[in-house]
Amino acid sequence: MTDPQNWLPPTNADRPAPPFGAYGPPQPGGGPPSGWTPPPKPGLIPLRPLGFGTLLWAPFQVLRRNPRATFGSALIVQAVITLVTLVVVGVVTFLALGRIESASLAERDAVEAGSAVAIVLSAIVPIALSVIASALLQGIIVVEVARGTLGEKLRLGRLWRAAGGRLWPLVLWAVLLSTAALLAGGVMVAGVALLVTLGGAWVALGVALGVVGGLALLALGTWLFTKTSLVPSLIVLERLGIRAAARRSWSLTDGYFWRTLGVQFLVATMVNVVAQIVTTPLGILFGVAVSLVDPNDAFEAWIPSIVLYVLIIFTALVLGAVTAVIQSATTALIYIDLRMRKEGLDLDLQRFVESAGADDPYLVAPGRDTGAPRA
């Protein structure tokens, strides 16, 4: 029996620790309940629905957390695209200009037309490569964000293999988006050109169509892009086909359109502002260097301009790689956040982290109705 005179109330150390995520009585001033344990943060982000500020800054942490795999992949992709563009288009342009110079006056018009067509066609090769490489890079960053959220840090080779398994659906989606944008823009430009060529009052109508149609296309494109912006993440992480991924992206963004658009717009604005701050002085220096070249065309006088031009290309490669990583990571984080808010993905991720289970937490359970059958 306890002596009443020596009795002391139990301290916190004498009480058993509350279980993970337990809630005690609320604290004065609206603070968290006593004994409350926040969801863990094993890796890139906390395993709970993300605040607006976290969505803005977490994409930049992707670069910092695993730079060799993320920035390295983006730099390789950007360098290959730039090199192929310079080689293919540069060689064709050099040969085409040589043909024009050696052509006779009677054949010059035909040679110029053929050379122009050859130069334009040569650009198709780097454009096609750019679509494929950009789709692959997008898949790589999606995998990195998804695994980084679980505390995993994959090497470059594993990321490439994981994204490569879903490469062709990603490429097909990129081709569909590019084709739709080109067709819409081409139809509007053709309509404006036709009205302007008619002359008279049709010119004013053509100008009005160009202004109103351009704004309408911009608004429509922004809306469609935002509603379907989660498609790459769904293709890679949930292994859906294009049609199913588009439907599911449309559903996940319901009620969160402006939040999704706002995060993507602000991140893109921040990245582009930084890029302009870096590249604008270099562009000005290049223009000054070219204007100060020796009028006698001495080769040595071109050396500073050549060095500066190479520096501009290298800077553009680095900034392009950083921009690609950050924008792809932003979309992947929005996808994870929306699934946390609408489907309780945070609970699945917490269970996976705590139990180190083998099942992929991003795959939708067969019994859950999402309206998107797996491909």
Structure description:
- This protein has 375 residues and is mainly α.
- The protein folds into 3 domains: 65-165, no CATH class; 183-254, no CATH class; 256-351.
- The chain contains 12 helices and no strands.
- It has helices at 52-65, 67-102, 108-122, 124-149, 156-164, 167-198, 201-227, 231-237, 242-252, 257-291, 299-343, 345-355.
- Helix 1 (52-65) crosses helix 10 and helix 1 (52-65) crosses helix 11.
- The longest helix has 45 residues, at 299-343.
- It is globular.
- 25% of the residues are buried.
- Residues 1-32 and 371-375 have low confidence and may be disordered.
Features:
mainly alpha, 3 domains, 12 helices, 0% strand, disordered C terminus
Distance between the termini: 70 Å
The structural domain count equals 3
The largest sheet, given as strand count, sense and whether it forms a barrel, is: none
Shape designation: globular
**What's the overall average pLDDT, rounded?**
81
Structural class: mainly alpha
For this structure, the quaternary state is single chain
Order of helices and strands: HHHHHHHHHHHH
Total strands: 0
Residue share in helices? over 70%
The total of helices stands at 12
Strand portion: under 5%
Q: Can you tell me the residue ranges where pLDDT is under 50 for at least 5 consecutive residues?
A: 1-32, 371-375
Secondary structure blueprint with pairings:
Layout: H1 52-65, H2 67-102, H3 108-122, H4 124-149, H5 156-164, H6 167-198, H7 201-227, H8 231-237, H9 242-252, H10 257-291, H11 299-343, H12 345-355
Helix pairs in contact: 1-10, 1-11, 2-3, 2-4, 2-5, 2-11, 4-5, 4-6, 4-8, 4-11, 6-7, 8-9, 10-11
Protein name: Glycerophosphoryl diester phosphodiesterase membrane domain-containing protein
Transmembrane segments: 45-63, 75-97, 117-146, 167-196, 202-225, 265-286, 306-336
Biased composition (Pro residues): 25-40
